[in-house]
Design a protein that fits this description.
Elements lengths: L1 H20 L7 E9 L4 E3 L2 E8 L2 E7 L1 H7 L7 E10 L4 H6 L2 E14 L3 H20 L2 H12 L7 H9 L10 H15 L4 H18 L4 H18 L6 H15 L7 H21 L6 H16 L1 H8 L6 H26 L4 H28 L3 H21 L9
Parallel strand pairs: 4-6
Antiparallel strand pairs: 1-3, 1-5, 2-3, 3-4, 5-6
Length: 413
């Protein structure tokens, strides 16, 4: 076993070195030809950032005016005719490398846009349908949030909305995670249960892979998807695997495939939150007062917050205290939007406008509630020092109560 660890460590170091070596452009200068969009173009101030794969390498382009309008509705997987200049990055190279971007492209011509592969065409049709239905039945802010909750599409969210969700400790809701994957599998469970074991495994893997493609293979959904595939594999083989073991194996697999994930903040938060829920959550649950319906969601929230405490403080310089009540109020409703929103949005796409509004009404109410919780939480969240003091006071009060009770753990029913 020790030898295996040594081999994995050496392999990880070698793969990491290779990954950083590939973070520099092999070719610069003029380019004329087709390039694939490897991410949805994202608004950036008055401009638009588009990321292209050109001859196997990623390049960022910042578009304004007519060029911006040309690609504002384009999506990942589509091909664009380009003419312009490739150059190495002069700043922000480290951050760009994490996204597998090696340089900057300055276009002189943005030409035709054509569809990509069959998988990309199918994914883009679903994303466009959901976005179109949401925009026709909700306010622009709620429609952008709905897309974020259901498929992790946050490209159209305003900066103020993103900041409010971060300030309220709810930004994880707009990043597709294990909860979204679990809801997709739950929705398909009546059909999956009718299949024989190995056919069920194949269908589960295919469904998870399709959902990962639909949500653009974000770090959080990669972690959740690989964990789901590993869990399905263990189940079909008649083995039992603990969540911590599944998480560890998923991290090993993903970091081996893409070593640069170790620098992704989204990956840190996803892994940390999952570890907190799996390890800290059960320990806290049996040591909290109150009925189980109250202790379970509170323990999950506390576990997730403790799991992301270090990266949150290091990167965002805060760990919102208001995230405790905000998550308790928003997460169940956001879960309903995730579970209901995808099938409802697809079903409503072919209906008249009046019926669209009727079908989407529950999702619209749920989305607006989540937005309201985030906005109120952001407003009432104390300054960072006061927030830290609130965390310490709460921890001290809980430890005092626990010690007065004799320090025993309650056995959940």
């Amino acid at each position: 076993m020790v030898g295996l660890y040594v081999v994995l460590a050496v392999l990880g170091g070698w793969l990491g070195a290779q990954a950083w070596q590939s973070a520099h452009p092999r070719q610069v200068g003029e380019y004329r030809g087709w390039a694939e969009l490897i991410d949805d173009p994202a608004p950036l101030g008055q401009g638009l950032r588009a990321t292209f794969e050109i001859e196997g390498e990623g390049f960022d382009a910042w578009l304004y005016g007519g060029q911006r309008r040309k690609l504002v509705d384009a999506q990942a997987g589509e091909y664009v005719w380009l003419e312009g200049q490739r150059a190495a990055l002069t700043s922000g190279a480290h951050r760009a490398a994490i996204r597998h971007v090696v340089g900057r492209f300055t276009p002189s011509v943005i030409g035709d846009v054509i569809d990509g592969s069959a998988l990309n065409r199918a994914s883009n049709r679903i994303r466009r349908s959901l976005r179109s239905v949401a925009e026709s039945t909700m306010t622009s802010d709620d429609a952008a949030l709905f897309a974020g909750l259901v498929i992790g599409d946050d490209a159209r969210q305003r900066v103020e909305t993103i900041e409010a969700f971060r300030g309220a400790g709810l930004s994880h809701l707009t990043a597709v995670s294990g909860q979204n994957v679990a809801f997709v599998l739950a929705a398909a469970l009546p059909l999956l249960r009718r299949l024989r074991p190995w056919w069920r495994w194949a269908a589960t893997v295919g469904l998870v892979a399709w959902f990962m493609a639909l949500t653009r293979f974000e770090p959080s959904v990669l972690r959740a998807g690989v964990m789901a595939i590993l869990a399905a594999t263990a189940f079909v083989r008649g083995a039992q695997a603990s969540p911590v073991r599944l998480l560890s194996l998923a991290v090993i697999v993903l970091v081996t495939i893409d070593p640069l994930l170790v620098w992704s903040v989204g990956f840190w938060l996803s892994v940390g939150a999952t570890a907190g829920v799996c390890v800290v959550g059960p320990w806290v649950r049996v040591r909290l007062p109150g009925p189980d319906w109250f202790r379970l969601p509170l323990a999950v929230t506390l576990g997730a917050q403790l799991g992301v405490a270090l990266p949150s403080v290091l990167v965002f310089h805060r760990l919102p205290f208001v995230s405790l009540p905000a998550n308790l109020l928003a997460v169940p409703v956001a879960g309903f939007v995730m579970l209901y929103g995808l099938p409802a949005g697809l079903a409503a796409a072919g209906l008249p406008a009046v019926l669209q509004e009727l079908v989407m009404l529950p999702a619209a109410w749920g989305t607006h509630w989540v937005a309201l919780v985030a906005q109120v939480g952001y407003v009432i969240e104390p300054a960072p020092l006061w927030s830290a003091a609130c965390w310490l006071i709460t921890l001290f009060a809980w430890l005092t109560w626990w010690r007065l009770r004799g320090g025993e753990a309650r056995v959940p029913i």
